[in-house]
Amino acid sequence: MNTASHPVDRILPWRQMLTLGMQHMLVAYIGAIAVPLIVASALKMSPADTTVLISTALFCSGISTIFQTVGAWKLGVKLPILQGVAFSSVGPVIAIGLTPGIGFTGVCGAVIGAGLLTAFAAPLVGRLRRFFPPVVTGCIVTVIGMQLFPVAYQWVGGGGGVDKEAFGSLPFLGVTLLVATVILLINRFGSPFVRNLSVLIGLVVGTGLAVMLGMGHYANVAATPWFTLPVPFYFGKPEFSIVPIATMAVVMIVQMVESMGLFVAIGDIVEKEVSEEDVVRGLRANGVASAIAGMFAAFPFIAFMENVGLVILTGVRSRWIVAISGVLMCAVALVPKVGAIVAATPSAALGGAGIAMFGVVVAAGVQTLAKVDFENNRYNVLIVGFTIATALIPVMTPQLFAHMPAWTQPFVHSGVVLACLVSVGLNAVLNGVRPAERAQDEHADAACATMVRD
């Protein structure tokens, strides 16, 4: 009998957990392999080395996910968070890898060194938890969803590899519409269990239509090996140099700020309080997982918000389901051919799922902001307005910050980081710094007062 007191800690029947975990893994897979593909292309790696890089990235993503969901020792925030390679690390990784005399072994050393520094710095950064009341987390979640929209729209149009003339053609739009319609119909008429699988079913149906219309690139599946085994130090002994480690440490500091905002925001979404100690455990897990990733030639990790959208859409909050998806990612990493089939999923099918998942993330942010007292505190309106307007600059007009100093680029090109910095800064200046618990109580009292007046 399940005695868990919170849906996040609930253990469901194994068949249900396996199916839902597979759904999470499928949603995350494309994003999980994107970074190693980009890095391998930029560093001109051989097909065999590229396969190894993809497998190690998946394998270590699974390990990082297990750390965050299950927890071990003083590691893990214990929320339904699926971890993946952070896109913000792409630029520094390529720059370090192309530096004469350093190469990819220097990349591995930099990731290991920066990961260990992150783990040790986690308690210091975790003290900033009190700067994240609902007005801040609501802004962050809203921005997260809105900055994902361009990704979904790219999928809807057919993906980045489609010719400009074919982008957005009717077959692509038709597949996307079918997937979105299936998801809506299942959520309206399906049983509770089937509703939980609405995204997976929509993707399967959409992929079937897309293949019939000639979409999907399965030519590379035959050339992909059946089995591979990620081993540490495949590319050689890591080299530790001060400048590469410092460069990667700056990137991971930015990721720590972003991760802290994500932990608190996801806690609000699943309605589970995230304490300062929880934040520290989560940040420490990211650091340790990144250090392990450097040993296996992988990269730093961060939470995949696509999967948070899936949590919202299905309503299933169990962290154990996402832990199962972490195990599945490790398993798929050992069988590259299966991963190649998943990677060949037509982009238009992903577009329908993306529209649904990213849209509900924005709705979750709006729901959090609805609990904020705007009537009696006019500063909150300013905080939300300035935060969203600033955080969407990297999405809508990324060239606006082209002339900013080089050291600021990791900060100004992440909408989530900008949302954290602007909302936290404005809230501290306008509302003052208060303990998170007190701030939440005040927001709750304001909401109750509004209900009484109504």
TrEMBL record:
It comes from the Bacteria. Pfam families: Xan_ur_permease. Keywords: Cell membrane, Membrane, Transmembrane, Transmembrane helix, Transport. The chain crosses the membrane at residues 20-40, 52-73, 93-119, 131-155, 167-186, 193-212, 287-313, 320-342, 348-369, 381-401, 407-430. It is a multi-pass membrane protein. The keyword Transport applies. GO terms for molecular function: xanthine transmembrane transporter activity. It comes from Paraburkholderia caffeinitolerans. Belongs to the nucleobase:cation symporter-2 (NCS2) (TC 2.A.40) family. This is Uric acid transporter UacT. InterPro entries: NCS2, UacT-like, Xan_ur_permease. Its main location: membrane. It is found in: Cell membrane. One of its GO terms (cellular component) is plasma membrane.
